[in-house]
Structures are given as C-alpha cells and as structure tokens.
Design goal:
Blueprint: E1 3-10, H1 17-23, E2 28-35, E3 38-44, H2 48-55, E4 61-69, H3 70-79, H4 84-98, E5 103-107, H5 114-123, H6 137-143, E6 149-157, E7 160-167, E8 179-180, E9 185-194, E10 196-197, E11 204-205, E12 210-213, E13 215-218, E14 221-224, E15 228-241, H7 246-257, E16 259-268, E17 271-284
Parallel strand pairs: 5-7
Antiparallel strand pairs: 1-3, 1-4, 2-3, 6-7, 8-12, 9-11, 9-15, 10-12, 13-14, 15-17, 16-17
C-alpha cells in the first residue's frame, strides 16, 4: 500500500488540473468531481511538493490536503503510540477493501466499449463490493467477442479493477470533432470531461479557434476521443436596431449575441442602440 495524498481544487477550470499535472510528469491516481467547479485529486505523497510548485501562481484554490496509506499510518504512529491499534484496524479494513471491487475502469483504444464491458462484468457477478475476480478467463473470452476487440487484460490496484481493451487499428472508431469557438471573446467558463483543453478561463479567443482537441494524452501517446466539453465565451455588444420598441431591440440582440450579462439600450436616430456584454456557450456532447 503506497503513501498517497489528496486535496481539493476549486476553480472554474478545476477540471484541467489532472491534465496539467499529467503533462508535468505527476501521476494522478484518482479524480473525483465534488461540485461543479470542485475536484478531488489523489497523488503520491512524494509528489506533493512538486504538485504545489506546478500549481503555484495559477488561479486554483487548493484545500483540504491530507495523507492516507502508508503516509497516514506513519504520521499516526509518530503522534501517539496509542493509535497503533486503530492503525492496525485501519490497515485490516484497507486490505479487506482491496480484496473488493470498489470501482471499475475501462481503458485503452477500446474504452468506447465501457458500457458493454461493465454489462459483462455485472452478468458474471463482478459488481461494486463484490470479490475481486481471481479467474478472468471467462470474462476475457466474452469481451473478446465484441466487434473488433483483439486484446483484453485485467489489472487490480487497491479496490480498482482496470480492464484494458484494445481494438484492431483498422477498425478503430474515428475521433469526433474538436470544440471550436463560434465567436470572438473571452473564455468565462471551461468544462472538459473528455478531450484536451487548448485554452484556459480568461483567455481571449477568436472565432474558429480550437478550444478542446479531440484526443487525450497517455504519456506521450495521443488517443483519439469523442470530445465532451463546453465553454462560455463573453463578448461585447454594440448594435443598432430599427425596430418599434426597446423590448423588440433587446429580444433581437439576444438572438444575435446570446445571453446578456450587461445591457444598456438607448434611442438613436437610426433606431435603438444596444450595448453591453453577452455570453455564448459552445458545447459538444455536454449541456
């Protein structure tokens, strides 16, 4: 059982932290979404100093740093010998949990078969809190029957069962389209659940600029993916409408520019002048 640390990150671009750490060479062991703009990240305890150096100066609020695994046990032993009994019980509980399936991860080029793989596991009695499968032969045989699947393997780490699925390259699905900006403006929100972000909150972008690429990085290898992401872009409004009333001008501006953040309407010789800012949402497979 390795020494690990966990912490929470609060930011409009908190979802980008795992990718940023991975690109800097810090292995991310686990990521959990806590709230819309809050993620919990698990790393090795020895990478804590490097992680904070990487994130220093960024617009992230880092909270609730804590240790577990061997690091936590060691700290408890130093603080009080009386806690050793509790540490032994904790270790026993961890060992018990490690013998159970707490989560299933489907990785590899055939990860798009995740739903089918989970269905096979469930039918074979491998579900949450079930014992870790000792003989995976039958599971492997069933997964290899899926179209174009040519390789399947199982790995156990802690309570996580990882299923690697690879498909014939000639039959692999083509990645979806990248997310691009439909307008020029400033990024006000960026949520990336799948894909690689090219911009950050606060960046100025042009119409047609790439926001999220349709691949993910595994080490130095690019893996095509279907992008699941959305971005909010704030832009300036300044338009004149030759319409009968102020309400009609505001309605037309909303259709032309998006949801208003700030708006000011004044009467001019040419009609109604609408000024302010509006937010446009660009999204792929995420609402």
């Amino acid at each position: 059982m390795r020494a690990e640390a966990r912490f929470t990150v609060r930011s409009l671009s908190a979802q980008c932290v795992p990718d940023k750490l991975a690109r800097a060479g810090v292995p991310v062991l686990c990521v959990r979404m806590r709230q819309k703009n809050t993620v919990e990240v698990h790393i090795r305890a020895k990478d804590v100093k490097k992680t904070f150096a990487i994130l220093r100066g960024s617009c992230y609020n880092i909270e609730n740093l804590g240790y577990f695994g061997l690091a936590r046990l060691g700290a408890n032993a130093v603080r009080a010998a009386g806690l050793l009994f509790g540490a032994v019980l904790f270790l026993a509980a961890v060992l018990f949990c490690e013998s159970r399936v707490l989560a299933v991860e489907v990785v590899g080029g055939g990860a798009y078969y995740a739903r089918e793989v989970l269905s096979v596991l469930e039918e074979e009695g491998v579900g949450r809190f079930a014992p870790m499968p000792k003989d995976t032969g039958r599971l492997t045989a069933r997964i290899l029957r899926l179209r174009n699947v040519e390789f399947c393997s199982f790995k156990r780490r802690g309570g996580i069962l990882t299923v690697e699925v690879q498909c014939a390259e000639s039959e692999a699905p083509i990645a979806g389209m990248p997310l691009v900006s439909s307008v020029s403006g400033v990024i006000s929100e960026l949520i990336v659940l799948r894909g690689t972000a090219c911009v950050s909150v606060g960046d100025a972008v042009e119409k047609g600029q790439l926001l999220v690429e349709n691949y993910s990085m595994t080490g130095d290898k690019k893996t095509p993916v279907i992008v699941i992401a959305k971005a909010g872009i704030v832009r300036e409004i300044d338009a004149v409408y030759a319409l009968e009333g102020e309400a009609q001008a505001a309605a037309q501006a909303a259709l032309d520019f998006g949801e208003f953040r700030e708006i000011h309407i004044s009467k001019t010789k040419g009609g109604w002048r609408v000024q302010g800012t509006a937010e446009v949402v660009c999204a792929l497979n995420l609402t």
